[in-house]
Amino acid sequence: MKEKQSRTIVLGIFRHEGCLLVFEGHDPIRGVTFYRPLGGGVEFGEYGHQALAGEIREELGADVTDVRYLGTIQNIFTHGGEQGHEIALVYEARFTDPACYQPHAFAGAQDNGTPIKVSWKPLADFEAGAFLVPVELMAILHNHAA
Question: What's the pTM?
Fold first, then answer.
């Protein structure tokens, strides 16, 4: 049996006009829709800000600037019936291309090429109960209001 390990990831906070850029996910076991900022794994020898820039380039084909560290979240969760453990480095950043701030959904893709639905979602939706993960992320957003 393979030993489970924690994984270090980066999450990118992009805000615009009261909205947060997120992708929509679904847990088929629990039947829950959730939203999460874009990001991904930090490779050995890679700094968090470098990982964020690379992940956003891979997922959206966009470049970022003004990357600023906001905090770290230890996230222990269950998805698809499997337990996961992530150490999430949270960074806020801006896009270099103003077109990224248009109110359309992005055509994004995961590392394996699987399409993801990415859109600007009002922060008020999360305050009203839309499921933002990791759950501790709202506290970081409040502590670093735009």
Answer: 0.91
Query: C-alpha distances in angstroms, 86 versus 4, 95, 107, 110, 123?
Result: 11, 25, 26, 17, 23
Token pair, residue 37, equals 């900022």
Q: 140 near 70, Cβ under 8 Å? A: yes
Query: How would you label 102-119 residue by residue, b for 16+ Cβ within 10 Å and e otherwise?
Result: eeeebebeeeeeeebebb
CA atoms within 13 A on the CB side of 61: 6
**pLDDT tens for residues 32-53?**
999 999 999 999 999 999 999 9
Q: Find the length of the chain.
A: 146
Any idea what DSSP says for residue 15? E
